[in-house]
Amino acid sequence: MKKEKKPKKPASDSLAIVAAIIAGVVIFYFREFVDPEVVTDTIIVVGLTVLLTAIVSAVILVRKDNKAKTDKEKQREEELKNLDTEKLDKLISEIKFRTAQAAYRIKMSESADISIFDSKFGGLPYWPDSMDYPLSKNGEKLVLLAQINFDKAKLHDYRLPKHGMLQFFILGDDLSGVNYEDPFSQENFRVVYHREPDKSVTAESVRALGVKANTDFDGTDDYLPSYKEMLMSFEEMTDYTTDSVDGFDELAGHIYKELFDEELVQGSLWRTLNSAENDYIYDAFQEYSFGHKMLGYPSFTQCDPRCGEYQGEYETLLLQIDSQDDIMWGDCGIANFFINEKDLKKLDFSNVLYNWDCY
Predict the structure, then answer these.
(1) Which end of the chain is more exposed for a tag (fewer CB within 10 A), N or C?
(2) Are 197 and 164 in contact (CB under 8 A)?
(3) Can you spell out the DSSP letters for 2-45?
(4) Residues 120, 230: contact at Cβ < 8 Å?
């Protein structure tokens, strides 16, 4: 469930205070240009009236706000008292049953011994001198965001490579390499796959190419999500759809009608349920939605970038990196890389959707 926006105060209430303040300022300013012997008393009376109006308006607003809060609290208490958790648990269980998918939870850990061949976040990348290093559209060297060594990670999902190394590079600009108008354009980010990494490559040979790690920057004139190097470890998990995924409301609403034979308000489950019921469902999926992971279902702080013209495509979550473990995307955001399953099967990473958003 999306968090509800706070209701706006009626325009008439706000205008009353604004008008009073403006009138007071005008009167105060123009008093210098008026003969004080003629209108001094008038100015004082008008000024006091304006001030009184402002005070009365403010008191009325405060009382209205307090009443609205009290009414909302009473409504909330009533909703919680009548919360049918058995019914909601049945709905949640069915949603999970129909959307269950194998995935990998990624855990980050610091270590003093991280090599260029490890699965990791940040640090110096593996890179052979026989290949052109990924550059931005302006010729700047991109920075390693993450790399997964499938030979070491030994991930067993049929959708992922069994061998080789997958790398994610970004530019340290104010958008961290993303292009919201064209999220597939790998001009300021890059996804690179090495089928057979060259074991003779060393950190020194990578440094000789002029490559910098995120740990070489300090945030003075760049915008990287983190300046630490951390090892990745992978844990198998069963993932379930999240409320922020495009189509969740439609799917959950369909299941709701099927289970309970009840019509939806305006075709929406969220509009059908009250706030307490919505929150109960929202909380049920929070354990799975956020965090670092591969495969499974993504989460967003704003909306699913795959809706609209990309609906049904890029169904595979290649990598999700959240704001945790000393990683921060803007104002506590989350980053996702998506790929079409057919391209993933061919190990073709030229058509990847990269997006991150924040609050």
Answers:
(1) C
(2) yes
(3) PPPPPPPPPHHHHHHHHHHHHHHHHHHHHGGGS-HHHHHHHHHH
(4) yes
Name which of 310, 291, 296, 289 is nearest 354 in CA terms: 310
In tens, the pLDDT along 100-115 reads: 999 999 999 999 999 9
Number of other residues whose CB lies within 10 A of the CB of residue 146? 24
Secondary structure string (H, E, C) spanning 284-304: HHHHHHCCCEEECCCCCCCCC
End-to-end CA distance of the chain: 16
In this structure, what token pair is assigned to residue 7? 């209701």
pLDDT by residue (tens digit) across 114-129?
999 999 999 999 999 9
* Residue 30 to residue 133: CA distance in whole angstroms: 68
List the one residue out of 91, 351, 129 whose CA is nearest residue 241: 91
Q: In 3-state terms, what secondary structure has residue 231?
A: strand
Residue entry with tokens 């009167």: 27
Question: Token digits for 172?
Answer: 């340290």
Closest by CA to 1, choosing from 334, 297, 280, is: 280
Cα–Cα distance for residue pair 50/24, rounded to 1 Å: 6
Which of 80, 123, 105 minimizes the C-alpha distance to 228?
Answer: 123
How far apart (Å, rounded) are the C-alpha atoms in residues 233 and 21?
60
Taking residues 267-276, what's their average pLDDT? 91
